[in-house]
Amino acid sequence: MDYTAIEQARAADGLRLALTGGVPGPWSEAAKGCFRVRQVNYIPVWQEGGGANEELVAWTGHRNAPTAMYNAEPARVTPVDMINLAQRLGSGPSLVPEDIDARIVMFGLLNEVAGENGFAWSARILMFKSMVDNMGEAAMADSPMLRDYHYGVAEAASAPAKIISILRRLSRQLRSQKEAGSRYLVGDHLSALDIYWACFSQMLDPLPPEVNPMPEYLYKVWGLTATAIQAAGYEIDPALLEHRDYIFPNYLQWPLDF
């Protein structure tokens, strides 16, 4: 991806999107997917995963990605922020079901996948546990990411069970949808939930290098989640990955570009 320097992006109009550069960060990839489906153009801006990102903070007030800046409006950072902005600016297929019950299910499951204490949040906790185990608590004491995710021994111990409960609920949702004749997680059409799960599923089982040329170390880091939940007695439902393998080539950037 061809990134624009913060100085130039800050002076530009329109949508500027800070993205974790060089890796398929799930929050960033999902935001990109939402804007892609809604046919919204944006200027990509590099954010260093885990870095201080001082220039980004000075501009947006936020260190992490994705951070969306549209004209002079306030920064947007959450998945719901990204979806709502894409809905407002775009003209492509809707990311949100019209039916209110389907909409409630979509946003509820989206929060379980991408929100605080959800699937990806808990997977990050497992990664931090590995780092603390390898480097020692003293070496990690000042890590901003550990502070951001409220890392602790109790949180690490409960993470596998949280992940398993969310995956089981997603599996039930897919089975119900399949019985109703749908390939999507809610309703009869693609929604933001399909995009977010496709991107976040990489933390469970990454796509192969030929379509996902991410750094080698990430395969090991993301493998920690699968190892932990399998040790807790859970086997990954193949339907969860089959869904991802349908969504990516049909709706998202393929191969991935980050």
Overview of the molecule:
It is a single chain. By secondary structure, the protein is mainly α. The protein folds into two domains: 6-89, Glutaredoxin; 100-251, Glutathione S-transferase Yfyf (Class Pi), Chain A, domain 2. It has twelve helices and three strands, in the order H-E-H-E-H-E-H-H-H-H-H-H-H-H-H. Strand 1, helix 2 and strand 2 (43-47) form a beta-alpha-beta unit. Helix 2 (26-37) runs parallel beside helix 4 (79-89). The chain is globular and about 50 Å long. The protein starts with 5 loop residues before the first helix and ends in a 7-residue tail after the last helix. The mean pLDDT is 95.
Topology (elements, then pairings):
Elements: H1 6-11, E1 15-20, H2 26-37, E2 43-47, H3 54-60, E3 67-70, H4 79-89, H5 100-114, H6 119-135, H7 137-140, H8 144-148, H9 153-179, H10 192-200, H11 216-231, H12 238-251
Parallel strand pairs: 1-2
Antiparallel strand pairs: 1-3
Helix pairs in contact: 2-4, 2-10, 5-10, 6-9, 6-11, 10-12
